[in-house]
Amino acid sequence: MPLWFRRHRNYDEDNSWACGNWFEFLLVVSLAIVLLVGSLVLVLFWVMQYREGFAWTENPAKEFNLHPVLMVAGFITFSGFSMLLYRIGRCCRRIYVKLFHTIFHALAVPCVVVGFIAVLDYHNLSQPPIRNFYSLHSWMGFVTMGLFALQFVVGFFSFLILLCCENATAGCRASLVPIHATFGILTFMLAVATCLTGLTEKAVFSLGNYYSYMMDEAIVINALAMTLVGSAIVMGYFLLREGFRYSGHILVSVQSEM
To answer: What gap in Å lies between CA 80 and CA 59, rounded to an integer?
Structure first.
């Protein structure tokens, strides 16, 4: 009595959407895209306009500038688009949606790694050297990177299993989906919170008392922070909204051998 697993896509739900449902869906997706891209644009503008751009180990202060840019790119923009694509690909084959979901997560990995190296170099090469891993921001960063690494490994492993033996692992993969999705949302929210503590720390250390005078740089930093907050709100709404969830499910049919 073999078990045959097949994935069934429920198109009736999409067809039953009213005009208001589609308007809500497109509005939230558009806002999410603007905020995810806007976060990266603002952090690039801040670094190029007020922090004198980038360098490598020959100029530790400029090397540090890689840290906020790459962390926002990896944890916010690429990871955000990875989750966004997983939900908006309603009319595409799931194998392609999962492929692009994995690609965007993979793009985030080198951003996070190089961004982490940049801040370590800045601390170690500064004169005098700056202590590592003492602040709330760094502790939160460790937890965020740990969750992100775990998410990537589990997601990549399940995706490979999907390609190799889809039917045999259908039940196991189905049970992993809600866990993977929940931790993905938690990781994104924690990444936003970590970015906010980092921006506050940098603003206080770099601007000192001038921060309270709302200089141009302070306004840009605050605008970047609010864009990140907006990303967390919109992405949280989009990912947790029951009506936007992928409604495909696995059906199990039993055929008797006569």
So the answer is: 31
Q: What is the phi/psi pair of residue 205, to 5°?
A: -70, -40
The Cα 167–Cα 7 span in angstroms is 9
pLDDT at res. 255 = 39
The DSSP string of 120-171 is: HHHHHHSSSPPPSS-SHHHHHHHHHHHHHHHHHHHHHHHHHHHHH-TTTTHH
Cα within 13 Å of Cα(5), Cβ side: 13
CA distance 196 to 88: 28
What is d(CA 145, CA 113) in angstroms, rounded to the nearest whole number?
9
Alpha-carbon distance of 159 to 92, in angstroms, equals 17
- Specify burial of residue 183 (Cβ count, 10 A radius: 0-12, 13-18, 19+): middle
Q: What pLDDT does 96 receive?
A: 86
What distance, in Å, lies between the first and last C-alpha atoms of the chain? 10
Q: Model-level pTM? A: 0.87
CA dist., res. 124 & res. 26, Å (int) = 46
Rounded CA separation 126/120 (Å): 10
Which residues of the chain fall short of a pLDDT of 50? Answer: 1-7, 11, 249-258
Give residue 17's pLDDT.
79
What residue ranges in the chain does DSSP mark as E strands?
Answer: 3-8, 249-254
In 3D, which of 75, 77, 50, 86 has the Cα closest to residue 65?
Answer: 50
Question: Cα–Cα distances in Å, from 152 out to 76, 146, 228?
Answer: 15, 10, 22
Q: Are the CB atoms for 258 and 2 separated by under 8 Å?
A: no
Amino acid at 44: L
